[in-house]
Amino acid sequence: MKIKHLCFLLLFSAAACSPKITQDTQPQTPLEDAFLLQIGGDKISSDEFMYIMSKGQNFQQEDHGSSREELDKNLDLFINYKLKVKEAEALGLDQSEEFEREFTMFKEDLKKPFLLENSLQEGELRKAYARSLEVIKASHILLQFPGNASKEDSIAVFSMAQLLKEKAEAGEDFNELALEYSDDPSVKNNKGNLGYFSALQMVYAFEDAAYSLKPGEVSEPILTNFGYHIIRVEDRKPNPGEVKVSHILIRSDGKDANIDNLARRKVVEIYAELQKEESNWEDVCRMYSEDAASKNNGGQLPWFGVGAIIPEFENAAFDLQEIGEISPPVKTPYGYHIIRLEDRKGVPAFEEAEPALKSKILRDSRSSLIKSQVLAMQKERFGFKENEALVDTIQSIINEHSIQKLTEVKAALNQQNLMNSNLFSIKGESTTIQELITFIEDDKSVMRTVNARNFEPWYDKLVETKLAAAEEKDLYENNPEYRLLVQEYREGILLFSLMNEQVWQKALEDSLGQLAYFNSHLERYQWEERVPALIVKMDKADQARKVRQFLQGKTYQKDLYGRLETTFLEEEPLLFTMEDGLFEWEKHPILQQIPRNDQFGEINSNGKLHLVLKGKALPAGPKKLEDTRGKVIQDYQEHLDQQLIARLKEKYEVQINEEQKEKVFNLAAQL
After folding, report:
1. What do you get for the CA distance between the two ends of the chain, in Å?
2. What is the pTM assigned to this prediction?
3. What is the pLDDT of residue 564?
4. The domain spanning residue 222 has which CATH number?
């Protein structure tokens, strides 16, 4: 797809013959001031011309006259382009399945930056990045709901969470409260202390609450999928970025005192060994580390930031300051580590971080939040009105019979004369129950993921689809930038199809046409004086003597190339490179420097010594078609293009609004 669009831009920028046009200050058919052209009765605005020109043309030139000439040239090219688009439409190329498929794919990509979803997503990206510049240390108390919790259970859990918040604010030790009341399994080891974390490392509601607190503050009960959290922020500080470290691991889970003592003694001895000047980290790691995944590559671990790894290891790694610095032994739940700092980097700029942030946001609850916000904004903007009573009625009918039994559902709906009733309207345009049924019949994707008796997913999807269509329609009607962009791509696809059919592919496949064109333009395809030659470029000039001796006194022959390879390059393949063939004398940068009568010559060019052996020159003369078929095809394509434009200028009348053209010129001169 991108290739086609590029071809369109290249076509538009290339020189082409101007069509025959009528240039009347007062055209026979009066044009509205906003229209610059009329082609075959179709009016074309100045805005469209200026938009296309802004893609690759620069009107700013000191010479006023040449600016006007440039405008005329660009206008001619624009007219040629619009003539071809007009012809493509007349041939029905915009009605083909291939065109529709490709254009739809383009539109899906083109509209994304203009949609409400994109602006909301951009806001979340910016917020997440701003938060990522800081890390937060927090503790929490988690209160989970009992299985099959009732409404009363939920109220009881919330009340308990509120009570614990009040206790913490009254001065009771937060971590002791966590140890006593928290349902988080890790509380026995950390007393609720989560360590430092940054954006996109916690569930969104938790992160949102934590980043709203100052050190020492306690949050209201925060509901997540895990239960209610009470959060106390301990510290906030700038994000130190990421580190890359390597480590040596001696395993111990700490459960067996003897094994743990042995591991501790072993790691102390390894650390002492590393202090010796002659020690080598990679060798020691390979010999002693018990991390099978990293021991053979020097113990190297991937880059990581705050909150991405166990706190004991993370703290020791971030405490290292100098590249190559080695930490004392560090104990973690996995055993004992010795850590070496390999590199560190700060938080990347937004542009660099954006792809990773976007990927994370699309995978977490923010994506659902954005979707909900988009739907709410669309409903407000496009006047969404729902017939709630009818929705309840059809939901009851569908749930009674099941989505999988649509025949029964339709019979029940017809019995109550509901099929043509309006479920909802968008911008005053109604959607009926019949449309919903058709939508369900045509789209089976939801059925695989939900209860077949539940109609809500299909109804919600239909509403979402209709609102998205309304937003796209509104965007096309009211956003000139988007409308011109869509039109540009649409016409680019049509132009490519027309040119491929009537110029490019035709020229490639029409061998008789190529021959006829070649024979009628023989003067274009002529050899200049040529000479057979062997050119040896010495890569080792100090060894040129033996190659020179080999060539001097010999006459040019085709087999010299192979003999040189056998004699010299089998033992020294980098001694020289060779060029052997029939060359146009005056066009070759090396041959043109050798006197015509010299059979053997030496030239220093671009710092390299060239040894040249020439044969007998051939006079100038005509080329054969097979010698220049590529150039003939290229010229033949240009010829077919000119013929196409000549036909179109006779088929479609072109009128230029000279008054509007002058306005365009004056505007362009100010840019």
Report:
1. 32
2. 0.69
3. 94
4. 3.10.50.40
